[in-house]
Description:
One of its GO terms (biological process) is light-independent bacteriochlorophyll biosynthetic process. This protein is of the alpha/beta class.
Amino acid sequence: MQLTLWTYEGPPHVGAMRVATAMRGLHYVLHSPQGDTYADLLFTMIERRGERPPVTYTSFQARDLGGDTAALFKDAVAQAHERFKPQAMLVGASCTAELIQDDPGGLAEALGLPIPVIPLELPAYQRKEHWGASETFYQLVRTLARRPEGPRAARPPGRRPRCNLLGPTALGFRHRDDVEEVRRLLARIGVDVALVAPMGATPQQLAGLADADFNVVLYPEIAQQAAAWMSRTLGLPHTRTVPIGLGATRDFVREVAALAGLDADAALARAEPADARAAWYARSVDSNYLTGKRVFVFGDATHAVAAARIAAEELGFDVVGLGTYAREFARDVREAAARHGIAPLVTDDYLEVEAAIAAATPDLVLGTQMERHVAKRLGLPCAVISAPVHVQDFPARYAPQMGFEGANVLFDTWVQPLMMGLEEHLLGMFRGDFEFHEDAPASHLGHAVAAAPAPAELPAAAPGAAAWTADAERELGRVPFFVRGKARRNTERFALERGLAAITVETLYDAKAHFSR
Length: 517
């Protein structure tokens, strides 16, 4: 076991809480020690929900371990059923309670409650949050979905095709807005949404999942397992393309049209706005300013793979790093990394990710809130593309990641840090200019020119590095701010390898020529 300050995923029971909190009419009884109620804060504080999750904790204490903790759990289940009157219940144990082996499923079954009670076996020491959410949704679907009698009937003539949207949960990155955007997109091509699940669904509604014609899997980490089961058991096919980015959204529309029995070209013509702004930018002269920018991508598999495709195919960036913490979907990331000609990074150690980012020296980092902190320390621009996220990534405004509007949001989120970097570079170039420095009065007024300010602060030299001469420090100050640290490190490394005691202007340019080869 490794101690760490940060973690990309919580234990699997937090994933189960994400599903339970997203649904209505469902209650989760969690056998857990006192203190595990911290998980409520993830939803009420970070996601800014107005109500706490529908979870009852047994909250046993140390003194309870010498008594009957099984009776404590049975009492909690009975009281939760009496108080909340849910349509169905989930029962399980947290990572600590798992060790006392009280069998929540068997204990709840012995109560003989008049509602479905779904036991969750979530091995906390082998699995993590996304797997816990996936397993919970799968068990709900498998228990509650009504199986059709005989072969599936054909869609009645005149009825529009219907689909289920699968995967959005509580505490999901932009799930609320993604669902709304995909719903609008499907409506434009003539497809109705029968049910969104887990978000907003009730256990009784899950029984009618098979009434749709097909499933749309928005978040494979959550819904892929349940969708595969429904494909085998209920005869419901499902999509495999996630509509993040212009290219993927077009592919998604064609895939949905094929499943719905619609003309793909006509559907795409109805779906895509004539004035898609992100598409316009890709054809504009302005896009040349960012062509070839180096980008490092890390996050859950779905968002990381999608981000790498957008960066390379739609914005003209060079993908220099691609990785995920989601080991269950590592194959997808490895295949994507091979397409980009780079080595994949599959790890849940944020220090390893930080080292990889520092070594790649990208111009932009696309990652989670962990990478936001890493990029800040390294002085790099960053945009958050994936969970885990913090409160600032649950905006009050409409900000989807999916669909054509999502492509506009991604464009703004990714390009603005680089454009601001360009602006700061220009300010840095003219900071010491006799006419254009920040303290100079307006030139058309004819006033005396004020003295130029002091040069910008330079990155600190590494301990034990060769001494920099004053002329070399001044010359380093002319290097653009976003590569100045790298220039200092390369020059000091160059001087160290050659045993130089001092770094002069000539040393700076010799190092530049050496590392440019």
